[in-house]
Amino acid sequence: MQQTLPPATVGRLPRYLRFLETAECSTVSSEDIAAGSGVNAAQVRKDLSYLGNNGTRGVGYQTQTLIRLLRRVLGLSSLMKIAIVGTGNLGSALAGYSGFVNRGFQIVAAYDVSGGKIGRSIGGLEIRPIDRLESDIKEMGVDIVAIVTPAEASQEVADMAVRAGVRALLNFAPVSLHVEKGVTVRQVDLATEFQILSYHLANRI
Amino acid sequence: MQQTLPPATVGRLPRYLRFLETAECSTVSSEDIAAGSGVNAAQVRKDLSYLGNNGTRGVGYQTQTLIRLLRRVLGLSSLMKIAIVGTGNLGSALAGYSGFVNRGFQIVAAYDVSGGKIGRSIGGLEIRPIDRLESDIKEMGVDIVAIVTPAEASQEVADMAVRAGVRALLNFAPVSLHVEKGVTVRQVDLATEFQILSYHLANRI
DNA sequence: TAGATTGTTAATCGATTAACAATC
DNA sequence: TAGATTGTTAATCGATTAACAATC
Q1: B133-140 vs B151-163: helix axis angle to the nearest 10?
Q2: Contacts of B192 (CB under 8 A, 6+ apart)
Q3: Which residue of A24, A161, B115, B116 is surrounded by the most CB atoms within 10 Å?
Q4: Listing from the earlier edge strand, what are the strands of the sheet with B55-56?
Q5: Could you give the 3-state DSSP secondary structure of residue A171?
Q6: pLDDT (0 to 100) of residue B2
Q7: What is the largest CA-CA distance in chain B?
Q8: Confidence (pTM)
Q9: pLDDT, tens only, A104-139
Q10: How many CB atoms lie within 10 A of CB B49?
Q11: What's the pLDDT band for B98 if we cut at 50, 70, 90?
């Protein structure tokens, strides 16, 4: 296993893992994985070969072995702790999503600014005031902060999280965040996704 | 303006548009756009040059002109109609998100299978039974279907939508969909995003 | 003219994939 | 041995970006 995987490879490993976890055979071929996760079989083999020689020629890959390997490479050996900031529709949906635990994550806290919301419960979590975020991050050992605030607030929340030591952010606000080196930001913008689809509809051949 | 933009360029245009819509100056440089959307300035110029000569050397780009251009290229001149299938936490959040209209989209209907939910209201929409999906798509002229069902149901919903003539799908279920050529699928998998972040935390240098 | 910034080239870099020897 | 499938090479393809002439 090596230190730095190509970014494109990292992006595909979760897809492979997802497929493997639903696979019913004890052995899978690169063709199987490819079909199940929508990529080229050569791609699959190349991606997996970065992680060492894990297959058997003529046979394929041991499903369970590969699952364990991918979980380990992705850092999912223990549950990752996530805090959610913003408890609007989307934030509440995240907090209430029960599927995360199976995929390696645990939502440990939810935050909001609005006085009216503090103390209310979403997804089994009591909403906490945002000024607790920094101290909570340190005390609870939060690994990832999901930012689900309005656009105006997102940079400020990112700054707070980074100040408290968080090194991974998932930003749902439609703003590009500026963070110091060593902090990874992933951006999910639903309107952007729709706009890309719109482009393809408008420019169909 | 040309027929086929590189996919990577298409993915960035919405970011540029988003930035421009919040920009306060009547003129912006490629450096401004780059800073505001987190990409390289040469990249911005190259992307925009695919759309024709829209800048003025020594000056920059006219903000409003560029906004109109990008909207047109992205097919956002008229509101795109979206139907949502699945009214769990995430589906309800989508239905209730008011920010879509400003970005070119209108949620026109929401669907579910569960008898108990039919007729209830989310985000101002009455939840309709899934067996109405195909006829509704045709009658209402739905452009895009967002699939927010459990994994097991997503392929079936995709098939229904495609059968009814939809050519663009946004899939939130953690399954790779198989669709006929000419249909564009975008996949948003939140657990995947968290897993990519997890990788970076685990393999930090 | 001097300063600024585009549009475009060309070099570089990285990602994809067909093909096949290795090997079970 | 025959069939299957990996691991890896090498070719191809596409994306990024520094650099700079063109031009406002």
Answers
A1: 40
A2: A11, A14, A15, A18, B174
A3: A161
A4: B27-28, B60-62, B55-56
A5: strand
A6: 43
A7: 63
A8: 0.95
A9: 999 999 999 978 999 999 989 999 999 999 999 999
A10: 11
A11: confident
Q: Which of residues 34-53 of A touch B (CB under 8 A)?
A: 36-38
DSSP type of residue B149 = S
- DSSP class of residue A79 equals P
Is A61 near chain B, with CB under 8 Å?
A: no
B167 touches chain A (CB under 8 A): yes
Q: With H, G, I as helix, E, B as strand and everything else as coil, classify residue A182.
A: coil
Taking contacts as CB-CB distances below 8 angstroms, the residues of chain B near A38 are 176, 178
Q: Which of B13, B90, B105, B194 to mutate to test the interface with A (most CBs of A within 10 A)?
A: B194
Which nucleotides in chain C lie closer than 7 A to a protein CB? Answer: 3-9, 14-19, 22-24
Low-confidence ranges of chain A (pLDDT < 50): 1-2
Q: Do A14 and B76 touch (CB under 8 A)?
A: no
pLDDT classification of B1: cutoffs 50, 70, 90? very low
For B119-177, how does the pLDDT look when each residue is reduced to its tens digit (9 = 90+)?
999 989 999 999 999 999 999 999 999 999 999 999 999 999 999 999 999 999 999 99
Interface contact B167-A201, CB threshold 8 A: yes
Nearest to B14 among A100, A144, A195 (CB): A195
Spanning CA of B77 to C1' of D12, the rounded length in angstroms is 38
pLDDT, one tens digit per residue, over B20-34 is: 999 999 999 999 999
CB contact under 8 A, B193 and A170: yes
